[in-house]
Amino acid sequence: xxxxxxxxxxxxxxxxxxxxxxxxxxxxxxxxxxxxxxxxxxxxxxxxxxxxxxxxxxxxxxxxxxxxxxxxxxxxxxxxxxxxxxxxxxxxxxxxxxxxxxxxxxxxxxxxxxxxxxxxxxxxxxxxxxxxxxxxxxxxxxxxxxxxxxxxxxxxxxxxxxxxxxxxxxxxxxxxxxxxxxxxxxxxxxxxxxxxxxxxxxxxxxxxxxxxxxxxxxxxxxxxxxxxxxxxxxxxxxxxxxxxxxxxxxxxxxxxxxxxx
Length: 261
Prior knowledge:
Layout: H1 3-13, H2 17-21, H3 25-34, E1 42-46, H4 52-59, E2 63-68, H5 71-83, E3 88-92, E4 105-111, H6 120-130, E5 131-142, H7 147-158, H8 174-181, E6 186-198, H9 201-211, H10 213-220, H11 224-241, E7 248-260
Parallel strand pairs: 1-2, 1-4, 2-3, 4-5
Antiparallel strand pairs: 5-7, 6-7
Helix pairs in contact: 1-10, 3-4, 7-11, 9-10, 9-11
């Protein structure tokens, strides 16, 4: 495994993505509906994480394969599938080099997953490679203007990413999608929101700094003063987006995308 893959695996294994992924279930269900998933279709979920989309597709009687780089997340996804008696083929693999043949799937999906690939062009090319002619690619990706996009940009402001790194939220823009998938691709993108609920902004920030891998890694790379400053800026961001005076009720803006190559 390359050093870059090792770093990616550690980023998503650290913290506790189960806590985070559990709050994104609705986006997975809606994506299957937007993609008009049909029974018995062959479906590949890329960067499946805790398996939200894979499980949603299996519940709709698709023939599902799910790929992720992180063994710990795949193990959790398998347990979830077993609990629901769902048949899903889970495979360890990298979104930039998917371990499946060309043109194998009617539907290829990723929810807040493939957008974190280091080589975005290569990851997009892999999605195009494995989808069948006439098939489609369905994605849910964070926008630059929403909380997740702004939070990731905040991390990058404190811990400079490697040269040539593009923002993950590029996948959450029409311009970025056309760059990645080509001007001839049919792209339908609908803005959507999930709502993040906590007892208050500070409670969210505390939990986030303990569970969300990219933020945990950023905090590890900083000295005490840097960590304090990043947490303060994150808290200010959350307060600014909160729509409730007593608890935290915060929108998470994303694009729901269906691509027909």
